[in-house]
Known about the structure:
The chain is an alpha/beta fold. It is built from eleven helices and twelve strands.
Amino acid sequence: MAEKKAFVTGxxxxxxxxPKIHGYWLQQYGIDGSYQAIDVAPADFADFLKSLREExxxxxxxxxxxxxxxxxxxxxxxxxxxxxxxxxxLWFEDGVxxxxxxxxxxxxxxxxxxxxxxxxxxxxxxxxxxxxxxxxIHALKERGIKDIRIVNRTLARAEELSRHFGPGVSAHGAVGxxxxxxxxLINTTALGMHGNETLAADPAxxxxxxxxxxxxxxxxxxxxxxxxxxxxxxxxxxxxxxxxQAVPGFERWFGRKPEVTPELRRMIVADIEGQR
Length: 276
Ligand code: ATR
């Protein structure tokens, strides 16, 4: 049988860690497959989508800046992609190109891994109202969290998300007293990222049972996570979200549900540390 082919596309794409993740699994499971990084300029993206079948791809991942164009360009979408408004995973099914979004799945699976039972910890405070925030809010809603508070510097963007996700999702321009009874605090902003290592919010005001997580994973311990740990709170870093979001795509293209193992995590941590 011919080699099973998949890809990740973005612009630029050189920094993507997805080829390392999928390459590790292909090797671990002895699958005759490939996973290739392809740089596609925005102007060429529609043609790229059209060429996939001819090129023999089973599907692939889509990252910045193509997630919205992929959303518009596929024939069918899964529920998560519709809710999030972006597509990060492509595959062929029933003869047509499907688009899904696994970022919310990855977010929830990471917490399942490192903070089992987390979904009982509402209310949740979500910092940020961009694309990553949408995936996180989708996952929180799916897991039954009834009180989700979006805090964003630009209030109008939080309000737009609150309208989109409906009852139980509120919009705020500042953290204020929102942390006092919150069981979950999630940073989806770029604050805390390498080169911008500022505290996204002060976890001092959270109750003792709260869980704090960050979708930023470079550095692995952001200032927010460090402050939460110092305060004695349970913390979960963002690397597991990256690893887990890759699972559904791999299973679709290569026919086996891969495992997020400590060895895979160590490999990606070493890669991050090597590039800093
Ligand atoms: P992503 O898709 O990664 O979520 P995005 O859509 O650009 O990226 O969203 C970035 C988020 O980080 C937004 O919530 C943004 O706040 P604004 O909507 O007010 O721009 C937030 N953000 C980025 N830099 C920030 C800063 N210096 N202070 C506060 N929030 C910031």
